[in-house]
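Reopening this ticket.

The earlier resolution said the output was attached, but the attachment link was broken on my side. Pasting everything inline this time so it's all in one place.
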Amino acid sequence: MSSWYHTTAPNDDVAVGIRLRLCRNLKGYPFAHRMNDEQQDAVNALIESSLFDGDDSKSDDFEILRLDTLSDVQRGALCERGILPKRFFSDCRHKIILLSNDETVSILVNFEDHVRLQVFESGLQFEKAYQKLSEWDDCLCTNLPIAFHEQLGFLTACPTNLGTGLKCSALLHLPGLEAAGEIGMISESVSRIGLSFKAFLKGDMALYEVSNQITMGITERTAIGNLQAITEQVVARERAARKLLDPIEIEDAACRALAVLKSARKLKDEELGTMLSDLKLGIAENLTDALPNNLPTRLYIESRPNMMRLESTDEAAADRPHSLAQFIRNTL
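Inline output:
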């Protein structure tokens, strides 16, 4: 599997990656949760044909996943990669996911909205992600009657998505700002301008997500531009905060983490998060072996329980600490 988190990109010393998501619905059909079986099947067929329209060069780059034919482990792994929202994990009937081979593009059909277009990219590649998103949105809007209101914009199942239907987010690694005690101040400042700033994981990986809240009264490009501008400011502040840290302390923590990850026979999930955060900071500051900035992200995602179960036996997965340590050792 080769995914967006396998690739390096500018700014990935701080920025893990971004996601752009567009919600669209078809005119003449109820929202997904109100449709009967016949309507859902019709929407599936309409959207699939409009996106590919007999173009083998496009369809060959995608896999069609029918959610009700997947195992719990396969659905869980989609959740762990951020492709499938957890709230839809068990509600599978008439839902399909069109997933590109590199997993940068995923198109969810008949979930909360008739269509949810998602694009993932590493680093802060907003323009590259938006070009992909626009291409698929143009396919939909050209070939199908999309529900749109002159005053409200694109009509969506959730009122918070009305307008552009666009939600965009950036995932940032901020150990420097954590150490400086500036996370609360940044969260407060960002919220004043209509953005959300929150911890991404319960574990100690120093990951934070910045996302837009406003979808009405602005264009898609304005929403993305606003998020990009604020994200770049946060990235600059993180880099400045890192310069105040003791490089010997960073190097020591990163080298200790790498040594444990290479040799441990048992690992707990909560300690893995801390070590991967230390390792990522050490790599970014060029204080460890020549390892790519995206390695800790890849290790974290691919070591999630369902991701590992895709590749391992039930017996190996039964002892999570042992199988987790073995997976990390083998990958390194």
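Reporter confirms the inline version is readable. The chain has a mean pLDDT of 91. The chain has two domains: 4-242, 247-331.
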